[in-house]
Amino acid sequence: MRSLFGVIYVLGGAVAGFGVGLGAALLFAKLTNVSSRDGAVGYLTIGVGLVGALVGLAAGMALYARSAPSGQGATYGWSAILGVTTLVGVVVLGAWSWLYLMEKPLEYDGAMATLELELRVDAANVPADTAPPWLQVEVHTSKTRPEGTVRWAAMRTEGPHRIIPVMQNPLMRATGRVIVVQLPGRQTEVFTPPMPRIPDSRADWSAWFRPERVESAAGAESSGSRSSMIELRYRVRRYGE
Questions:
Q1: Which residues in the chain come in under a pLDDT of 70?
Q2: Residues 96, 111: one domain?
Q3: In terms of C-beta density within 10 A (0-12 exposed, 13-18 middle, 19 or more buried), how is residue 89 classed?
Q4: What is the pLDDT of residues 145-196, one digit of tens each?
Q5: Domain stops at, among 84, 101, 118
Q6: CA 63 – CA 68 distance, rounded (Å)
Q7: Where in the sequence is the domain holding 53, given as residue range(s)?
Q8: Residues 44, 147 share a domain
Q9: Source organism's superkingdom (predicted)?
Q10: In terms of domains, do 158 and 202 share one?
Q11: Phi, psi (5° rounding) for residue 219?
């Protein structure tokens, strides 16, 4: 409880000091007609305000120590320091967690990344005419679901299979990714391949994965459980590689 009261004293002193410093800087700028060119007045007021906050912080800590019963000033002072340190640690940890978990385009040394996929399908299941698109791909995160570009022109045959390349960019930095392959009018296959938050952009193709689940498409006739038609593998590359 002492630490909590110490934090209140210290924060109150810092806020008061910042306000006094800000007011003093504004008054000084007005009396001396400080130039506002390039934001000089703003820098001055913020700088003096921060100095005032530091002075107020120290003053608040001293006042809290003086409010202690006789002989306990040092104990109260250390309690205030502990409380402030804990508060700063919580704020820093919260800010770091927010920045770490925030979804944004993944970058490697300033270059964004492309998620490259290959879908392996039995050749007998691929129609001769893939227009309109026979399949569609989306990469889902908690906040985004960008579509992948199916490169039909680069489709190739390997034994009894057709290999269909897909590119999705930019790849988002995310704690989890779900790759959804839709076969319009037929079924949807959902993949959750193990993929690090920041994949290795130099790694080769992953192993082939089968879908975690297969769902009937809206409007499709239900015929019990559906079997998967697609296998998937991935790799990540920087733009331009």
A1: 1-6, 34-40, 64, 68, 71-73, 76-78, 80-84, 87, 94, 96-101, 218-225
A2: no
A3: exposed
A4: 999 999 999 999 999 999 999 999 999 988 889 999 999 888 999 999 999 8
A5: 101
A6: 9
A7: 2-101
A8: no
A9: Bacteria
A10: yes
A11: 90, -10
The rounded distance, in Å, linking the Cα atoms of 181 and 163 is 14
Question: Structure pTM?
Answer: 0.62
Does one domain contain both 88 and 116? no
In order, the DSSP letters of 109-131 are: TTEEEEEEEEEEEEGGGS-S--T
97 lies in the same domain as 111: no
Return d(Cα 164, Cα 156) in angstroms, integer: 7
pLDDT recorded at residue 148: 94
β-strand pairing of 230-238 with 161-168 = unpaired
Domains contained in the chain, number = 2
H or E stretch at 182: strand 178-183
Q: Which of 52, 67, 101 is the last residue of a domain?
A: 101
Instruction: Look over the chain and give the mean of its residue pLDDT values, rounded to a whole number.
Output: 82
